[in-house]
Design goal:
The protein has 26 helices and six strands. The chain is an all-alpha fold and about 575 residues long.
């Protein structure tokens, strides 16, 4: 007689705990914002959502956000497509080095880079001075005043084009080369083959990356806040933090952002699924062979890549120069050098407390992600529980939920509900900050643990179980050691990106005692003499930490490092 399907008690308890945690700290805040946005005193109502499109200020902010996102997406496409095409199809000296350097812009959030770039683009900044020295203009140019969106678009493009590049390389690598060869054999020129065959086949992956960049730039809070572009939806949400419990318009703004992000994420997944079923047709029979790049073409690529990388590193360089320059006014480079600002960045109560807070918060978020991510991956890969795909999809949901949505939802759900406790962000936001950091970076850990479990044979675990080891002992003595490299690498990524999380920090940390690094940097920028320099020095400390941790994670993950930043 066939035994009925049974789920082990420990597996059931683990699944219940995971689902309960995600329900409280991910689903509930989202549902709460929707509920507040679509109800009034009489019940269900679309009054507040309609107000977003009827009030001129709200509508202008929405349109401006779409314009910024569209321009950033186009700019990223222009930069990433040529680089990805060469890297996916040709071999040349130094290719592995260039593959690593292309990820360098990711080590600094545009929010921190804006600290230095704001001074470079200022009326009396380095760019205006350079143009006057070259004789191209006879007076300083106020770039940010004349083109208020320039700084935001530039910074977000320089930060996000590697994300699109990774998606493009993956899309181009999945194309069956025999289809391109067939078109070439029929007389099509290389340009025509690329336009009529390659791009359509890579289209789903390409558009998935474009959508990811669009959503990322549409929901960015820190960069427009630093550049003073307050007429965009994320900044309006930030301005409504103080009235989160009384003014439903903030929840309506959050709901609109969530709808846009969720729609973009769904389209991205749909397109990537389509690419896997169409673009890889016949790929098992033909393997792409990288062609050698000619010497003139290699030299041209070196020059083009060097130019792109130099511009992409300009925010990093400007932050470093600002942190060591005594005076930077109507000069191309700072006048006088000092390391005093690094000392001040570590000496003041604000910055020292912010650094300690960020280390505690990021460590807590990483530990939470290791436990939660491994549990979810184990349930999906090793257990017999039904609905594993739904659980995996729920774990990936934070990719489609901007941090500003989660943070605003936490304020709405937990403020005043348990006054005077760690669950009340108005009293002490540290616990909710750590949880929000962990929720935001959970997909990194789930993917890392998922990859580790899939690459580890289950034979070792079965052998230990057959020798009498309990399920807990098998996991503790066999499974965890075998996937430890993946867990450490995923934990490092969760830690370093939590250290520089912007949206959650700006919204949840309302008291100086609980400021993380990013909130301290923003506060210093608004401070008195040399506050910007100290903010830049704090940004350099954070940048060095992030760079070293990413290097460590790259050594552990190898070629799988890029998968953490792809759309699917």
């Amino acid at each position: 007689m066939r035994k009925p399907f049974q789920i082990p008690v420990r597996t059931l308890l683990l699944a219940t705990a995971v689902i309960g945690f995600l329900g409280v700290f991910l689903i509930w805040p989202i549902a709460h914002s929707f509920q507040r946005a679509m109800t009034d005193e009489q019940g269900f109502s679309l009054l507040y959502l309609k107000a977003l499109f009827q009030e001129p200020r709200q509508l202008e902010a929405i349109l401006r956000g779409f314009v910024i996102a569209a321009l950033v997406t186009v700019a990223c496409f222009v930069v990433a497509l040529p680089l990805a095409s060469v890297m996916a199809r040709y071999r040349f000296p130094g290719k592995a080095l260039f593959s690593g350097l292309i990820l360098v812009p990711l080590i600094l959030p545009p929010f921190v880079g804006a600290v230095g770039m704001k001074l470079v683009l200022a009326r009396c900044g380095a760019l205006s001075t350079l143009l006057m020295r070259l004789g191209w203009t006879d007076h300083p140019v106020d770039w940010l005043g004349a083109y208020p969106l320039l700084g935001v678009i530039l910074l977000e493009t320089l930060h996000l084009f590697p994300v699109l590049y990774l998606n493009l390389v993956a899309a181009l690598a999945n194309i069956d080369p025999s289809l391109e060869e067939a078109a070439a054999n029929l007389g099509a020129s290389p340009a025509r083959v690329f336009r009529r065959v390659t791009l359509p086949l890579a289209g789903p992956g390409l558009f998935a990356g474009l959508i990811l960049v669009f959503i990322w730039s549409f929901t960015e809070l820190g960069t427009p806040l630093v550049f003073g572009v307050r007429g965009v939806l994320p900044v309006l949400i930030y301005d409504n933090v103080s009235t989160v419990g009384t003014n439903p318009i903030g929840h309506a703004q959050v709901s609109l952002i969530l709808v846009v992000a969720a729609a973009g994420f769904w389209i991205s997944k749909h397109l990537l699924h389509r690419q896997r079923t169409v673009a890889t047709l016949g790929r098992l029979s033909v393997r792409r062979t990288e062609r050698p790049l000619s010497r003139p073409a290699t030299l041209l690529f070196y020059l083009a890549f060097g130019l792109v990388l130099a511009v992409a590193l300009l925010p990093h360089l400007s932050v470093i120069l600002l942190s060591v320059g005594r005076r930077w006014f109507l000069t191309i480079l700072p006048e006088g050098w000092t390391f005093a600002f690094f000392g001040r960045a570590m000496a003041s109560d604000l910055t020292r407390g912010a650094l300690v807070n960020s280390l505690l918060l990021a460590s807590g978020a990483a530990l939470l992600d290791i436990a939660l991510g491994f549990g979810i991956a184990w349930l999906c890969v090793r257990s017999r529980i039904r609905g594993g795909n739904l659980l995996d999809a729920a774990a990936m949901l934070p990719l489609a939920v901007p941090g500003i949505v989660i943070a605003f939802g936490y304020l709405g759900c937990f403020s005043g509900r348990w006054p005077g406790t760690l669950m009340d962000p108005r009293y002490n936001p540290m616990l909710l900050l750590a949880i929000s950091y962990g929720i935001r970076r959970l997909p990194y850990m789930v993917r890392a643990a998922h990859a580790g479990l899939e690459q580890t044979s289950v034979v070792y675990e079965e052998a230990a179980a057959n020798l009498g080891a309990s399920p807990g002992r098998v996991i503790r003595r066999i499974t965890l050691p075998l996937v430890s490299a993946h867990l450490v690498a995923g934990g490092i990524l969760c830690f370093v990106f939590s250290m520089l999380e912007v949206s959650d920090s700006l919204i949840l940390a309302q008291t100086e005692t609980f400021y993380p690094i990013t909130k301290a940097i923003y506060t210093l920028m608004e401070g008195l003499e040399n506050g910007v320099n100290v903010a830049a020095a704090l940004g350099v400390w954070a940048m060095a930490l992030l760079a070293s941790a990413l290097l460590w994670a790259s050594c552990l993950l190898g070629n799988r490092m890029g998968q953490m930043f792809r759309a699917g």
